[in-house]
Each structure stands twice: as C-alpha cells, then as structure tokens.
Design a protein that fits this description.
Helix 7 packs antiparallel against helix 12 and helix 9 crosses helix 13. The chain has 22 helices and no strands. It has four domains: 34 residues, no CATH class; 202 residues, no CATH class; 66 residues, no CATH class; 41 residues. The protein is mainly α. Helix content is 57%, strand content 0%. The radius of gyration is 35 Å and the shape is elongated.
Length: 447
C-alpha cells in the first residue's frame, strides 16, 4: 500500500493523472454496460392508451393553500433562552462548553465536589459541599461582626450587581431575584472564606473542620474552581471582599493566587507581577497570568491606542478586545506533536514534557481527546509562524532525507550496530571484488 501511494499519488500531477485514468475507466465500464443492457433486456413497448394514462398520472397533485399567520412566527418564544441575544457581548464571560468538546469527555467539564454558580447547582453528587456553604457563611458573618461590620451589607452589595451577574452568563438562569442573590452570596462567601483561611488572614479555630482537614477535599475544590461552567463573576467576589472588610493589607488576587498556588506551584515573584490584573472570573484570572495581555502591557508603558479614520490601508490595525487563542493554539500544537505513545515518550525523555499521568499512553490519549474538534484560526494564532516553519522545514530538502536516514539506521544502539556491521560487510565485499579483479587483470609475476 505505501508503494502504491508513492507511485500514483506522490505529486499533484501523478494524483491528477491517476484520478483521470480511474474516471475514464469507470465511464468506459458504464458505457459498455448501457450498450449491452438493451441487447439482453429490450424495453417493453406500451400501447398509446397506456402511455397517455401514465402521462396523466405522472403529474404531481396541486397542493392546497395553507394559511399561516406570519406574526405568530415572529412572536417571542416564552421558553428560557439557552443562548441569550446578548451572549456575544464582552460582558458575557461564563458559557456552556460546546457539545462537540463536552461529548468527548463529559465528566472533564463537571465539578467533582462543589458547584459554583447556577449551571451545576443542585446536582446530587455536589450536595455534600453545598451543605457546608451555610456554615462557611455563618463563620464569615461572625468575623465581620467582630470587626463591627454589618453582615447585611453582603446582601446589599450582591443585590446591586444583579444585572451584571445575569449578563455574565450566556443563558437565561430561570431564577427569581431572591434565589439568585442567595446563590451568589453563598457561593461567593464560600470562595472568599476558603481564600481567607488558607492564606492565614483569618484564623479558623475548628481544627477538625473536614474541608481543611481531609487531604482530598481542598485539591478537588481547587480543580472545581477552575472549570468554565463553575464560575461566578470576579466583580461579585471583589464586592464581597471589599464589603467584608476583613483584610486591608492584601488584594483579592493575592489571596486567590495563594490559594491556587498549592496546585500550580509558582514562585511568589511570579504571582506578584499579576496582583493588579483585571479578570472576569477566577479561570480568566489564571489564564491571564499565563497568557500575556499585550495591549495592556503596551498601555502601561505609555502607548496609546487611537482609531484611524477613513482609511482602506491593510496596515490599519484595529484593536477590539484583549481576548486571545493562546491556549487553543497550544492545545492544537501539542495535539499535532503527540499522536502516539512513542511521541509522548520521546518528549518526556528530552524533558520537554512532564508526565503526571503515569504512562505515555495516557498522555497521548489525553492530547488526542482534548485536541479533537478544536476550532483554530491558524492565521490569528501566536504559533502561526511555528506551524508554518515546521511544515516548511520538514516537507522538503536534503536535511529531511539525512534525518530520515539517521533515524532509520542510527536511532538506537542495535540499529547502529546492525548498520555498522552491514557497512563493514559491504566494504569487505567491495575489497574482495577489487582484489579479485586486480589479480585477474594484473596477475602477480613469478619470481
């Protein structure tokens, strides 16, 4: 099969000629068939009356007119919108995972222990953590009262943000104002209490608290807080943080980084550079620490962005927002690199990839599944030059053939030994032929 492909499809011209020959062969077969068919099966002749009846019956019946009120089709649908009309706005930042991705591994996008926000609220396997949210709120309220802060201000702060909160989600939530405010206060204060206790800014006197004592719970919560469908707006957390008035020496981002660093393992100097980041939710905050926001960096260095009016030049650059496809580009690139178990092993051996899965097969399966059905605009990718350069370098040239030769014959000690032995055998055979021919044409002189 490889030799067949190489012979007939190694170039566009060979492929074109092969396809043309195949089409010509198919057409010739059809022509031969239809030429021979009437000879063996001649058509039946119909009398004139039968032909007339068949012609009359061949007409399609004229459909009766259907009355549909056009205004009924344009009336508003009363069902909850699964994708609101304003879901495309910049304020909408918490969306459902597309079905094309979720169907590959549905449990990868669902929280394991705690629901945050409305999308997974009320699920049976998340009720355990849900029961602790009121206890955490009670703890936070007690600390606020010790400081002389009215805890009712938490409700007031969230109520004023109801419109912003609803606008952050891509679908209609189907919740009354009271239900939404209650959910946001419980979820937001649960996150805030976690941040305060783990960072040591607030002391938890209950040393046997299962949330902090049982070793598997906090790592699971950290993972759940970084799921796209398991988010609350960052502006909500900021409002609760400022209203609680429990910490004034640190910002919310600092507490979030300290809590999540147990999983991400970055030096303090790394996080300190991102204390002033503005984010839409916790996942967006972490994303921005790894993806450079170029426009803001330039703005902080004094570069101003202004619109250029009345121009058709291709150099007229317009900036819309600071979103990027860096993560998607990275996933697509790694999925291209790792297609088999041997690819993962190769990158692990060269310390390019750290394998936390256990086996190379699991690494390969992970990247093949996460990279499946990824929609990537390569022209807008920050790795566009890398894709282009790798494809160009590896598609042609003498160095490609040299690399393939070296990989085939000298990739391991065994292939090297066999290739070296074959080379020696070839050299000895050549020498034997040479001396045999030399002795024939120039026999040694008798002394």
């Amino acid at each position: 099969m490889p030799r067949f492909k190489y012979t007939y499809f190694k170039s566009p011209w060979a492929c074109l000629s092969s396809c043309a020959a195949l089409i010509l062969l198919v057409l010739t077969m059809f022509q031969a068939f239809f030429t021979a068919y009437p000879y063996f099966r001649p058509p039946k002749l119909m009398d004139p009356q039968t032909q007339q009846n068949a012609a009359e019956n061949s007409h399609d019946p004229i459909p009766t007119s259907v009355v549909v009120d056009i205004h009924s089709l344009t009336s508003e649908d009363t069902d909850l919108k699964l994708l609101r009309e304003t879901a495309g706005s910049e304020s909408c930042c918490i969306v459902r995972i597309p079905h094309s991705l979720a169907r590959i591994n549905p449990i990868a996008y669902e929280p394991k222990i705690v629901s945050i926000g409305p999308y997974h609220h009320g699920k049976e396997h998340l009720k355990m953590a849900q029961q602790h949210k009121r206890r955490f709120l009670k703890f936070l309220v007690a600390k606020m009262q010790e400081k002389g802060t009215n805890p009712q201000e938490l409700i007031n702060a969230v109520s004023t943000l109801e419109g912003d909160i609803r606008g952050s989600y891509s679908e209609d939530l189907g919740l009354e104002s009271e239900e939404l405010v209650e959910m946001m206060v419980l979820d937001g204060c649960f996150i805030l209490t976690l941040f305060l206790v783990v960072s040591g800014k607030v002391v938890c006197t209950n040393l046997d608290d299962p949330i902090f004592r049982m070793p598997w719970i906090l790592p699971s919560i950290r993972a759940d807080l970084l799921l796209l469908e398991n988010q609350v707006p960052h502006v909500l957390l900021q409002a609760l943080f400022e209203t609680s008035n429990l910490v004034t020496s640190s910002c919310l981002n600092e507490l979030a980084f300290e809590f999540l660093d147990y999983s991400l393992q970055k030096p303090e100097t790394f996080w300190a550079k991102h204390y002033s980041l503005e984010a839409k939710h916790l996942l967006d905050l972490i994303r921005k620490t790894f993806v450079p926001v170029t426009s803001k960096k330039l703005h902080f260095r004094g570069i101003k962005f202004k619109p250029r009016m009345n121009t058709d030049s291709i150099l007229d650059i317009r900036f819309r927002n600071d979103s990027s496809n860096h993560i998607t580009s990275y996933v697509a690139f790694m999925a291209c690199l790792i297609n088999e178990e041997s690819d993962a092993a190769f990158l692990s051996e060269r310390r390019i990839l750290e394998n936390y899965f256990g086996t190379e097969e699991e690494v390969s399966r992970f990247y093949k599944s996460i990279g499946k059905d990824v929609a990537l605009d390569l022209e807008r990718s920050y790795l566009a030059k890398v894709f282009e350069g790798v494809n160009e370098y590896s598609s042609k040239g003498f160095h490609v053939h040299c690399a393939e030769f070296v990989h085939t014959h000298f990739d391991s000690p065994w292939t090297f030994a066999s290739s070296f032995a074959a080379l020696l055998l070839l050299m000895f055979a050549a020498l034997q032929v040479f001396f045999a021919a030399y002795s024939y044409f120039k026999p040694p002189k008798d002394k």
